[in-house]
Design a protein that fits this description.
With 327 residues, the protein is of the alpha/beta class. The protein has 11 helices and 11 strands. The protein binds 6-O-phosphono-beta-D-fructofuranose.
Amino acid sequence: MKDIKKIGVLTSGGDAPGMNAAVRAVVRSCVFNKIECFGVYKGFQGLIDNNIKSMNARSVNNIINKGGTILKTARCKDFYKEEVRKKAYKSLKENGIDALVIIGGDGSFTASIIINKEFGVPIIGIPGTIDNDILGTSFTIGYDTALNTVIESIDKIRDTAISHNRLFFVEVMGRDAGHIALNAGIGAGAEEILIPEEDMGLDRLIESLKRSEKSGKSSSIVMVAEGDKTGKNVFEIASYVENNMPTYEVRVSVLGHMQRGGSPTCFDRVLASRMGVYAVESLLNGSSNVMVGIKDDRMILSPLVDAIKGQTEINKDLIRVSEILSI
Ligand code: F6P
């Protein structure tokens, strides 16, 4: 095994709060272990364009509290072209980078596996996405902050819902996973939570809302995961309900990218710091092609191929809790 002397770090895919804390942890762990660290800018595009800069402990001052990523990020479709990847490898060689830490989601890990296979560069992944949809970890960096952003927004929407006796449909992010919707839905006291993993169907939704109305509720919040399949989209679901429940004044609120921004929570900062340190230590101990994760409050490693294998599972107990509490 070749000694690792220079490590590159990049953020890729959608930004997530806590990515900066992870970059900081990677850079400072490298310095601590007397390894040179290079920041690759704009994700995999930075490898292609040789947009790479040497970093030291001071390059990551005052970023632990910042959302977004100082390294910038991108979803780089070009990386799937072989001739483009050769340019990326050239940049790695020119800078003498022996190993990479990739902070991102499943798309980023798919690209990482290809780099490792084609060029033999050791790679460790750190899961950074608000969606919490990566296998091999209980939590991804950014998820906790997104949950807190969502419940704060819904608390505000609830003021209007109550004052106007309105029924609000709130769409949250999560791509094909319902983790944000389910957890933030319980945290914000939503009456119904629609997630891709459980198809409730429009008729059951109407029944349930009618029951709530009968029991004296005059306003309600329905949480809709963006990947939910109950209707074509949240607007279609809302208009179906409005047509069937004319007593309610219906509104739709799509929270959108505000869920990805903002200062990371303490949970995300600590998670990112631990993952960054563990990623560098694991590379130096000879691990490669694995992702750092957290399970039962302990750092673990799992093969990158497993991390992108399929859908994460929804905690069914949360569905039960939500049903009990929304009477
Ligand atoms: O993966 C994070 C995420 O915010 C998803 O929740 C969402 O589906 C997607 O990214 C949005 O991507 P973009 O910012 O490219 O529109």
